[in-house]
Amino acid sequence: MASVEMRLPAVHKPVSPAASQSNRDDKHLVVPGDVITSDTGFMRGHGTYMDEDRLTASVAGEVERVNKLICVRPLKTRYNGEVGDVVIGRITEVQQKRWKVETNSRLDSVLLLSSVNLPGGELRRRSAQDELAMRDYLQEGDLISAEVQSIFSDGALSLHTRSLKYGKLGQGVLVLVSPSIVKRQKTHFHNLPCGASIILGNNGYVWLYPTPGHQDEEAGGYYTSMEPVSLADREVISRLRNCLLALAAHKVLLYDTSVLYCYEASLTHQIKDILKPEIMEEIILETRQRLVEHEG
Amino acid sequence: MLKSKTFVKKTRAGGVLKIVREHYLRDDIWCGSEVCKECKDEAPVLQEDACIESNLCSYPHYLIPDTNVLLHQIDILEHTLIRNVIILQTVLQEVRHRSAPVYKRIKDAIHEKEKHFYTFTNEHHRETFIEREPGESANDRNDRAIRVAAKWYADHLTKNTNGGSLKVVLLTDDRANKEKAEQYGLTVYRCEEYIKSLIGNPELVDRLALKPDDQNEIIGSKLLFPEHLPLSRIQSGIKNGGLLQGTFHANRDNYLEGTVFINREGEDINEVLLQGLQNLNRAVHQDVVAVELFPKERWVAPSSVVLQDDSPNDEDAEEDETENKLKGVPPDSSVLKPTGRVVGVIKRNWRPYCGMLSQSMIKEATRHLFTPADRRIPRIRIETRQAANLAGQRIMVAIDGWPKNSRYPNGHFVKNLGTAGDKETETEVLLLEHDVPHLPFSPAVLSFLPKMPWSITEEDMKVRADLRHLCVCSVDPPGCTDIDDALHCRELENGNLEVGVHIADVSHFIRPGNALDQEAASRGTTVYLCGKRIDMVPELLSSNLCSLRSNVERLAFSCIWEMNHNAEIIKTRFTKSVINSKASLTYAEAQMKIDDTTMNDDITKSLRGLNRLAKILKGRRTEKGALTLSSPEVRFHIDSETHDPIDLQTKELKETNSMVEEFMLLANISVAQKIYDEFSECALLRKHPSPPPSNYDILIKAAKSKDLDIHTDSAKALADSLNNATVRNFPYFNTLLRILATRCMMQAVYFCSGMDSDFHHYGLASPIYTHFTSPIRRYADIIVHRLLAVAINADSTYPELMDKHKQSSLCNNLNYRHKMAQYAQRASVAFHTQLFFKNKGIINEEGFILFVRKNAIIILIPKFGMEGTVFFENKDKPSPRLKFDSEGPTLEVEEHTFHMFDKVKVTISVDASNIQHQRIRMALIEPVIPGVSVPVPESEPVAKKAKLDC
Amino acid sequence: MAGLELLSDQGYRLDGRKATELRKVQARTSVFAQADGSAYLEQGNTKALAVVYGPHETRGSRSKSLHDRAVINCQFSMATFSTAERKRRPHGDRKSSEMSLHLKQTFEAAVLTELYPRSQIDIYVKILQADGGNYSACVNAATLALVDAGIPMRDYVCACTAGFVEDTPLADLCHAEESGGGTSLALALLPRSGNIALLQMDARLHQDHLDALIEAAMTACKGLSKVLDDVVRQHLEEVSVLTRD
What we know:
heterotrimer; B: alpha+beta; Rossmann fold; CATH 2.40.50.690; CATH 2.40.50.700; 5 domains; six-stranded mixed beta sheet; five-stranded mixed beta barrel; 37 strands; C: alpha+beta; Ribosomal Protein S5, domain 2; five-stranded mixed beta sheet; four-stranded antiparallel beta sheet; 29% strand
């Protein structure tokens, strides 16, 4: 019989006052209802509202000031898309000429039939035939990677998969983290040296999958490999998943290096142990140190 | 501020419920002592020099009584000598659960500044809170909590006085507790020990309640009473219907009989009869008891024997005889009542009782029997060393307990009221016995009186109708100083009549919620005794500012009708006003004015108009079935110097009496309608429920004996048949019938309209009624004034006025006070009657038989409006042959049969043989029954107090 | 047996608090990783868990969505073990539906819903242990959860109950005080502006007392807002220390 480990919740450790003190100096933290400024010379940005000429915060977070524009960035929020972002999403609905994709933003995103590559990379006007075949390409529940093409007036995102790197996702693991801890980078597709690949969606959805052996150009993004994945690959992916969760729990920004360092730091432990609080802490501490050294 | 650790207190209630409550512990609870520097108490209660001179503790000290001391020795703690006492919250809570009256008394003591009683909230203090340990009973925990708190105080005071002399003394009567406390290093005494050590106050010792372990000495080992059931069994018994719960009422005339009124709805039986000491089983009047019903075959009828417990000593043996006497009465087959026995007392309702000491036969004895003034209360055995001093004095005694092997309850002496028979003392006694608040008004109350000299201000004039020009006059009994109503009547231009009733505007002076208002609300009514008046409001208001005296400007609340000459109301108007009464008349003066045809001034014209309308109104009311009942009312002519009654006469009713009454009724009805329309939920009204038909049995039977029929199906039928019930050559018969009818009636009561649906006033035959016209002497009227003032936008409202629950509890108090005031009034009349006859000696009067009992007849003497009993049984003499027939009802004594309404002649005297209970004695003169009646006394009243052997 | 004495002469309540004192409030935000926002709050022995999802696409019938603002969807439930006597069903009874509706109304007043047209915000609250002031505990917990979810609000919403015993307003009633008779008033306040988001009272009270009672409830709400504020700032600092780079 497998032994089950149970533990009581650990005592919540407060941050040392010194750390929070130093923090207070360089960051302007506000909570909803806090007046940021009564000066009328500023422009109202996200996370703020005007309360009788006073610029007031509506969310809890850090004040960001860009020239005259004042925003408050909340700690945690739904994904606010920007054009060019890489996102991972799940098809929720198939409509006429478009798919609805759940991308962790406040409205479902739209993937127009005209914004996808047709199988085989054919370039032509989409016909009624294509509309009927939409469900053959992508159906409800499928995961895709895509890029934000534009933003509608109501805030919904329009996506496209007009590149071979985007498209339907096959075997792999989806990890959900807060969008705010995914670092914006030039590329969000990484083949990690440890033997797996990662797509760090800007929307906080992270996709882990075995590094494909050969790029199958012909599939055009709609081909999913059903070949069994080797145990070694699965172990690497599992370890990465736990590493990601550990990083997310400690609010470490996610990018290829941080993931990799964390992975390496975790190697001394069993996969299942990574999520134990004290081990997690140890791994994260090591990761942070290496990141600081790396930067320095 | 709230430095609290959350403790969780678990209590289990009922079956499986687990109740978790928070319990905050604080460190801002101060010790309340003047000496303490550490505690930031703003107004420390406990004095620095807390000296009670005692042999045991010569140093200043604070007392900490434990729960039992507080419960049993409250009389001592209330004494002015005892000051600087710390009442722990633990103790207070326990007291609260165990005895509501004691709780109230201790709270009063705490509020009294002079007493320096301080409540220490130890259960919430961080250092004195303790948790119940496993295996520790709740009581043990509480005892420990008391010890811990006492210890804390001891340490705290030592620390803050730098080892000074201030100490705390724990008082407990529990031996185990005392030992533990001593081990714990506390100064601890038994209550008795401590009180006895007090220097210069021997009378305090008498106040000590008897403790259970002392009682063994007092009484024999014979078990007289069955054991009471434990509370748990009583509760389960009540739940499953095996037992009934109710309030015990002792019979006034027969100490071996009582009734339990079951106050639960849905029970078929609402009265259970109890007979015999065993079955009464130590229940005292007003106790809440559990009774067990006997099977039907053991049910008995209430005996109509009059029995008094006046065996001279407290030997228990003699009782059997009287018991037998009771049993000797043959069971009356027709009217068996549910009978049962008391199996347990759920709640004692003991209060201190007034009465007198019956001295023990043995001179040096310290245990004596005390006879309460209230005949429903059994005699009480007390222990006192000052018996000699207390002989002939009225004293107050509290009951401590009634062990099952004692014939009488045990009690202790509380207070000496004065010499018995003394007018002041007796008045005091009857006020105390009837719970009439009669202390002088406190300074706090008086502070809310208007400042003198008082006059009507401009603002008052602005908001009030100016009616000073009207020819208003008041009509009252002679010597009346609190005039609360005045009237006027004038012809209007359109030929109609304008009639105004002006009532003193007391609510202008008594503002809601202040001390004056609260005092008035608690007194409820002015109590009129013979030669004494206990005011509801201070005299300045009652006899001056609110009294509508003639030729002064007074504030009034007026109810003004426009009527046609047939006394039909065309318009009603209510307004606050200013009036100037033109004359204060007596009934007789007013009557003279009306009758004297030569007088034609405004006042007389006004009076004549009123009189005419009143007659029409009265006729109309009688038509609707209003009852005219009669009760003999007596007035004493009081000697102006000695204040002793020198003559007494029944009150006379003049036409003007009913004239005033008629308009008061009309005003009351109009106001009732108005406030009910305006406040359907919280109007204070007065109702008079129609009596259940069975109440009339005695009346119907009585009328039958004279071959007359009385119909009781409606008020109208009753009124008519009463009017027709006359017997030739017997003019007083009708009055007698009406007196009887009065006794059939229910009590009229105040109620809140939101809490009841039956508003009918039976006696007045009005669908709605209230009291509006006497705010000086009745608090209900003040409330009605306020309601009406709000209804006409003359005043603002306040929360209590609109709260029907508060209103209803106020009504309960008012009803209670009214009832008590009536009883007190009657008692006062009775006392003065005694005084009167004591002075006059034996007189020889004519009377009528009002009731016939098994062994006695009750006689009414019209001349004095007085009732008395003639007994036909006597201890010293062989009883005459008696035969009682409940159908008549008649009583055959030897050869003579007594019927109701028979005319008899009796002698009246005061039986002073027993100074504890002086009473009017009547003895039969006519008809002459050998061996029963007495000879006609000599025409010259005997100067010395004759003692009749009757 | 005499009933409970809700307020002693010395001014202490059953549990040792004074009339204006609140119960001990403890709270934590971000207790769940999956939800957008979550919070756990204890107000004395009343324990509430609030979870917020959204804003997200309106699920279920599309007709519910509003074109100019977000829909707030609240669901109140009580754990079956939350009361002394076990409850039959955790939600869906009349009282729970009413409570859900009240919560919805409360938060519609505070959340800047117009920023999220056609969206929906789900607020789920569960009472884990009930000891009086369920509504207020729910509101306070939900406020924390909303802040945690980064949903824009005008201000915190703080709620507190107040009762009226012996002419004294009592703040933050516990169960014994609520059931001990007398009036109980629940008030939700936007503390900074002093605007009232919801006011509810079932029993009768004379209007002269109402002001005093509301005043007491408002003071209590302001006290509570301080506690919530501390919780949020504490959390904010902790997180921003971690994400500092």
